[in-house]
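Re-run with default settings, no changes from the original entry. Doing this only to confirm the output is reproducible before filing.
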Amino acid sequence: MISSSNNCSISGIQKYCDLLEEIKLRIKSVQSIVNGDVSEKAFGDKIFAEEFMFLQIRKILELIAFGSLSSNIVVYEKTHSDYANNWRAKNILKRLRSINRDFYPLPLRQKDLDGDQHILENVREGFLTEDDLVHLYDVSSQIIHSTNPYAEVKKVDLQMSIDDWMHRIASLLWFHRIKLVDSNKSWLVYLMHPETGKSYAIQTVDAINS
């Protein structure tokens, strides 16, 4: 859903909201296994359930990274094609930043003032940072890719539980600012609007208090 004073880049932000809806479905699928709503036995083996979860996680991270390019389909497709041949997360982020330096979501929170006034502040901690994304993306890639059966098995350092990672992803996207590529417009975006539960974007030129 979109709220805007004009039609500038509406199709792009609508696509972004659609990507957020996909992210929510993938988060839900991971959490259903973590919470035991879906038994690991349904996958035949615990390792298959784990691989399924990390496949969803990697796709979530890709959607986060590429989402801000969705307003320009030509740039999106070219960049996405390039990534297919170079899946190292650091290189992907470097490539994205060269196209849109503000590609990464900026998590926000509302601070109420006296009366009906409020300001927006940057969230300082508890969300998925760019460094977190790099680490989790590389870990996910290690788990879902087949390994050399003759190579030494290396223990994967997840750093925190899958459930904690899901909370960090949700905290990043719950309410955030996004700037689309090739546009001078910024958007305030709800992952789940309090009234509808759907992803929702509001065009804004308001300054963000940092």
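Residues 2-204 form one domain. Helices lie at 10-34, 46-67, 73-84, 89-99, 130-144, 162-173.
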